[in-house]
UniProtKB/TrEMBL annotation:
Record's protein name: Protein SEC13-like protein
Name of the gene this protein is made from: LOC125529775
Organism whose genome encodes this protein: Triticum urartu (Red wild einkorn)
InterPro entries referenced in this protein's UniProt entry, alphabetically: Sec13/Seh1_fam, WD40/YVTN_repeat-like_dom_sf, WD40_repeat_dom_sf, WD40_rpt
Gene Ontology terms, MF aspect: structural molecule activity
Coiled-coil region(s): none
């Protein structure tokens, strides 16, 4: 597996990065209050800064690209409680499509819905709420629904379920509107949009997470007979949650104790490989074997010095 080093122009710690749908551009979020977009090109082509987006008043925690069906659109969230949706009119010319500032505290996580559900963005905040913003990209207008007291002590992470129902194939008219969230309360929750509003489907309470849930990620399920969610915690544990067709009970199984805070978990597009970022920047890839055990496929140890993650946690709270 080859790697490419990309030089970034940030003046402070980088908290998040996201590659666009075509793998050509990298968006990064930093404590310097900016979002930067870098052209990454091929393996031998030099990277190049193409845009610096300003509009946040404090650290920017997350960035995320919308599906290109809706144009070149990027979202960011930060400590200032703002969610900014950016749109590129021409190459390198970005403007603010919408600024959502209804949250009363740091917005710690954002996630775009599957494109089949429209241009929708879920946002999790330290004020304890989850907002779901539905946008009209042509006019910039939007509607927002709020899940009050989703995690009363603060929401740390949100992730959408795949739009396709379990066992269905591409083109199915049966769409799923669900979100999974994690919080400072050490709990993972699943929410479903029913009868015009968001309702709690399940609270995945267990004794496996003893500290705050840092990230959650819902795996692709196309053609499969079960739903799968990975959750990662400050206590070092990654838990795999599964539920059968028909909305059965969620079952949690410890995937691994990394014995260091786990910051991020992310599934491959096929849903069979899990990426885990833990400790002082160590990244590993895992795959479930036929006997249900998880095997390590790849490890990348950070060459960077340890970061002050405790300061980040205090800022988010």
């Amino acid at each position: 597996m080859s790697s490419k080093k990309i030089e970034l122009d940030h003046k402070d710690m980088v908290h998040d990065s996201a590659i666009d749908y075509y793998g050509k551009r990298l968006a990064t979020a930093s404590s310097d209050s900016t979002v930067k977009i870098t052209s990454i090109g091929g393996a031998s082509a030099p990277s190049q800064l193409v845009a610096t987006l300003t509009g946040h008043y404090g650290p920017v925690w997350r960035v995320g690209w919308a599906h290109p069906k809706y144009g070149s659109i990027l979202a960011s969230c930060g400590y200032d409680g703002r969610v900014i949706v950016w749109k590129e009119a021409a190459t390198g010319q970005w403007s603010q499509l919408h600024v959502f500032d209804n949250h009363k505290a740091s917005v710690n996580s954002i996630a775009w819905a599957p494109y089949e559900l429209g241009l929708c963005l879920a946002c999790g905040s330290s004020d304890g709420t989850i907002s779901v913003i539905s946008m009209r990209p042509d006019t910039g207008g939007c509607d927002a629904a709020t899940i009050e007291r989703a995690h009363p002590v603060g929401v740390t992470a949100v992730s959408w379920a795949p739009a396709a129902a379990l066992g269905s194939m591409v083109g199915s008219d049966q769409l799923v509107h669900k979100i999974v969230s994690g919080g400072f309360d050490c709990v993972v929750k699943v929410w479903e949009f029913v009868n015009g509003g968001w309702k709690l489907e399940s609270a995945l309470v267990s004794d496996m997470h003893k500290e705050c849930v840092r990230d959650v990620s819902w795996a692709p399920v196309l053609g499969l007979a079960k739903s799968t969610i990975a959750s990662a915690s400050q206590d070092g544990k990654v838990v795999i949650w599964t539920s059968g067709k028909g909305g059965g009970k969620w079952e949690g199984k410890l995937m691994r104790d990394f014995e260091a805070p786990v910051w991020r978990v992310s599934w491959s597009l096929t849903g069979n490989i899990l990426s885990v970022a833990a400790g002082e920047g160590d990244i590993t890839l895992w795959k479930e074997s036929s006997d249900g055990q998880w095997e390590s496929l790849w490890t990348k140890a950070s060459e960077e010095p340890p970061q002050e993650e405790q300061a980040i946690e205090e800022a988010m709270q």
